[in-house]
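Worked example 3 (structure in, sequence out).
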């Protein structure tokens, strides 16, 4: 699908060093790190957390190297900085990943059928357990999608559809709008089933769930997960008055080995502070958990019900011709945790003081934003960094890699993630950053911003030698724009060689 915008725009660097987030981290990160190292009561943070932040300090910063685009007609020089390609702290790379996933799913994977979004949220304790265990997250996802698939297949069988199979893709979001840990699922499911009784799968659209059906699904999801948690030792069994003792073998190594990371994630899941002067207290906002055994299913809106701290919302429908709306929905599911636009100073006259992070929507108690000290902001960001090898998107049902019908259903099974199909070519080409800019923002990086001429490929140069980097940036008046990293105020230095935490100029 091509972008509907016919106008093209000039490229302009996003300048991360000018953002409030970068300035806060440059001023406070070393101090926060030193304080964590000085805390000998709990084992230290894992290396991947520091690596994530250190990579962000280099992402988009010209001083660390860039690709230089030169126009032969007007001698315009356009430096394009390297990116870190991380998926935790860096808003720019999270936005790029979001766009890549949405483009790939719409162009190459999801067939031209109807879709429905199912959003599943979980009780506070389960959010932490899932964040600390890929295995438990996989079990819960399998149970949730099993109930959704059963709903569609049972409804299809009632209508006489033979051999129905359902499916979809789930985005595992680890965050809430208050920078709190909130593991929940955004599932984009086929709003119908494929009948695989014949030689080729045939799609049948089904009417959306009624409120009564949505209520039944919410109850079924809650009950099957609670039953599984009891069997796994996460909840007391019926008649058992003993303490809850989850199977420790399920907890990821980074959480078992780092008591500080476990503390930060646990506090984030309940909107508390883990470290510093306000440790143990609630985040300043300025107000469920598991329900009782006889908890009733409560309506929260159209096709939206809650029970036992679980919530199912299934009111968002996308028609088969609404591919633009589908791409936006997929991008929303794949988005990153942090937004620059929602972070501001509590007091503009005190740039080193408290910060305000505005919520996407007002909470029921009237809360519109949370107030964080700089160290509390860093703590919340650290808690949201995904551990290595944690999958943030999962296919299921007929779209899963194990389904023998997948290749017959997806649009372009030969095109892998990170590639796109080009008209007139039989082989997919890589979805480069420049192609993604043109697709999402209608920005043509090959057009000179000065005279509008085309920048030829031979006029592109990789610049990573520190001396040459400094010389070119000085000539362009761009050297030394990034704020200097402040040393720890405690006098403790954690990194003798910061570069050891960065995996290269990519």
């Amino acid at each position: 699908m091509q972008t509907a915008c016919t106008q093209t725009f000039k490229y302009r660097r996003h300048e991360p060093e000018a953002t409030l987030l970068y300035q806060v981290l440059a001023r406070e990160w070393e101090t926060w790190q030193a304080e964590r190292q000085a805390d000998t009561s709990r084992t230290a943070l894992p290396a991947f957390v520091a690596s994530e932040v250190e990579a962000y300090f280099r992402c988009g910063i010209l001083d660390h190297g860039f690709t230089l685009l030169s126009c032969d007609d007007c001698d315009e020089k356009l430096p394009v900085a390297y990116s870190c390609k991380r998926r935790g702290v860096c808003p720019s790379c999270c936005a790029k990943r979001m766009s890549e996933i949405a483009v790939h799913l719409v162009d190459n994977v999801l067939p031209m059928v109807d879709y429905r979004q199912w959003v599943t949220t979980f009780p506070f304790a389960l959010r932490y357990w899932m964040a600390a265990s890929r295995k438990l997250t996989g079990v819960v996802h399998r149970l949730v999608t099993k109930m959704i698939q059963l709903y569609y297949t049972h409804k299809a069988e009632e209508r006489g559809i033979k051999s129905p199979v359902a499916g979809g893709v789930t985005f595992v979001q680890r965050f809430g709008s208050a920078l709190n840990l909130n593991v929940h699922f955004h599932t984009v499911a086929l709003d119908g089933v494929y009948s695989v009784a014949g030689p080729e799968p045939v799609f049948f659209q089904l009417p959306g769930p009624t409120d009564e059906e949505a209520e039944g699904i919410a109850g079924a999801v809650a009950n099957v997960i609670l039953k599984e948690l009891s069997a796994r030792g996460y909840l007391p069994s019926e008649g058992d008055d003993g303490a809850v003792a989850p199977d420790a073998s399920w907890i990821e190594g980074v959480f078992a080995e780092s008591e500080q990371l476990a503390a930060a994630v646990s506090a984030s899941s309940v909107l508390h502070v883990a470290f510093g002067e306000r440790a143990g207290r609630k985040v300043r906002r300025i107000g469920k958990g598991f329900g009782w055994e006889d908890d009733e299913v409560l309506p929260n809106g159209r096709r939206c019900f809650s029970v036992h701290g679980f919530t199912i919302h299934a009111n968002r429908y996308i028609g088969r011709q609404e591919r633009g709306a589908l791409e936006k929905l997929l991008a929303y599911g794949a988005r990153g945790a942090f937004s620059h636009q929602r972070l501001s100073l509590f007091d503009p006259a005190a740039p080193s003081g408290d910060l305000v992070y505005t919520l996407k929507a007002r909470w029921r108690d009237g809360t519109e934003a949370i107030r964080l000290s700089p160290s509390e902001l860093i703590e919340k960001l650290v808690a949201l960094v995904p551990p290595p090898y944690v999958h943030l998107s999962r296919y299921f049902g007929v779209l899963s890699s194990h389904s023998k019908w997948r290749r017959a259903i997806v649009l372009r099974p030969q095109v892998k993630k990170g590639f796109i199909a080009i008209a007139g070519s039989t082989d997919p080409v890589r979805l480069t950053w420049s192609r993604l800019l043109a697709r999402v923002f209608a920005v043509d990086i090959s057009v000179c911003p000065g005279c509008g001429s085309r920048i030829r490929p031979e006029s592109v140069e990789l610049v990573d030698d520190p001396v040459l980097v400094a010389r070119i940036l000085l000539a362009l008046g761009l050297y030394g724009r990034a704020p200097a990293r402040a040393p720890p105020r405690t006098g403790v230095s954690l990194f003798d060689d910061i570069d050891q935490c960065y995996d290269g100029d990519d």
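Notes: Residues 111-337+386-409 form one domain. The first strand starts at residue 66 and ends at 70.
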